[in-house]
Amino acid sequence: MAKKTRSTKKRVVKVSPLGKAFIKASFNNIIVSLANEDGQIISWSSSGKMGFRGSKKNTPYAAQLAAEDCSKVAYDLGLRKVKVYVKGPGAGRESAMRTIHSSGIEVTEIIDVTPMPHNGCRPPKRRRV
């Protein structure tokens, strides 16, 4: 008995020469997404997707490979200039931006959108070891 597979229609994203690059650099992973001006994702990559595991995921080299993979796909589709939005405290923020620029996509401006608490949540109690 053959298994019936449902085919989902892939959304077609309009790619213009201008776009946005989102770099989320947490302590555990780096996610690079390239979007058009409306915010629809053209291509994305992460250090985990590139085959890094554990503590190697949050290295500048892993961020470099992820950004290279992501920007190559977007460049082929016609993306040429991006505004970069960086979020998080991770190690690969700088190297991901440099790699996007060196792959042929011009970085016009860099905006840090790291969320800052205005003394929000109460911190967890001190550890007793």
Q: Which keywords apply here?
A:
5 strands, 5-stranded mixed sheet, Nucleotidyltransferase, domain 5, alpha/beta, single chain, globular, 27% strand
Count of all domains: 1
- Fraction of residues in H or I helices: 10-25%
Question: Spans with pLDDT under 50 lasting ≥5 residues?
Answer: none
CATH class identity: Alpha Beta
Q: What fraction of the residues are assigned to beta strands by DSSP?
A: 25-35%
Largest sheet: 5 strands, mixed
Number of strands: 5
Overall, the morphology is globular
Task: Give the class from helix and strand content and strand pairing.
Answer: alpha/beta
CATH names the topology as Nucleotidyltransferase, domain 5
**Termini separation:** 59 Å
Across the major sheet, the strand order is 3-2-1-4-5
> Averaged pLDDT, please?
90
Order of helices and strands: EEEHEHE
Write up what this structure looks like.
With 129 residues, the protein is of the alpha/beta class. It has 2 helices and 5 strands; from the N terminus they run E-E-E-H-E-H-E.
